[in-house]
Amino acid sequence: MLSREQIEALIPHKGKMCLWDEVLAWDAGSVHLRARNHLDPEHPLRSRGRLHAVHLCEYGAQAMAVHGGLRAQHGGDPARPGMLVALRGVQLHCAELDGLAGWIECVADVLVEGEGSQQYAFRISHAGKLLAEGRAAVMLQAPEQNPRG
Predict the structure, then answer these.
(1) Domain count, the chain
(2) Could you say which residues of the chain have pLDDT below 50?
(3) Is 146 inside any structural domain?
(4) pLDDT of 144
(5) Source organism's superkingdom (predicted)?
(6) Rounded percentage of the chain residues whose pLDDT exceeds 90
(7) Rg from Cα positions in the chain
(8) Can you say how many angstroms the Cα of residue 64 is from the centroid of all Cα atoms in its chain?
(9) Does 74 map to a domain?
(10) Structure pTM?
């Protein structure tokens, strides 16, 4: 299990914008995380006092980033920065996250990956009830060239 501090070391999101609190499990093809920051009245994605379900897409995207960071770290390489370029098949099964006591959890699975891109499926739930699901694609920055000389 990884802590919030360890997660922050893997991804560019820091402080309250780091949305995941713990990594429960991971392997080369998937990651399982959980968070309870949706309860924070000062959540950075909160608008007019509400945390809307559409923000679960950002949770899904950050799950991808955490998984990429874990895989890179395991391989001894730096993680390649990426940019979210598409969301597909997103289904929101709730309107907002307010009132959900306890943890929300995410499982993100690698669907397709190439040299410069990755696509994941994500499922986010609370107490066994599905809140959101979808697919997300990211374009990865080209690896830095190491000049020899």
Answers:
(1) 1
(2) 146-149
(3) no
(4) 67
(5) Bacteria
(6) 85
(7) 15
(8) 5
(9) yes
(10) 0.92
